[in-house]
Amino acid sequence: MSVFDKLKGMLKGHEEQASKGVDKAGDYVDGKTQSKYSGQVDTAQEKLKEQLGQTGQRPDSPPQPPPPPQQ
């Protein structure tokens, strides 16, 4: 079992808090770097949220269609 799988298990049921933590960490990095790398920070936040099982979508955005089945 990978470390990331363990983290997912620990965060299960606490997705909203994890999302807030990712956002807060990104804001901290943006502050320390004076937003010099804000594009890269935003991309990292999105990818981390995807890995944690979140889509990163806002509640008012339409849902994404599921990916096609693998064959």
Automatic annotation (TrEMBL):
Residues 1-71 are annotated as: Disordered. InterPro entries: Antitoxin_Rv0909/MT0933. It comes from the Bacteria. Residues 32-43 have a biased composition (Polar residues). Residues 1-30 have a biased composition (Basic and acidic residues). Residues 60-71 have a biased composition (Pro residues). This is Antitoxin. It comes from Streptomyces flavochromogenes.
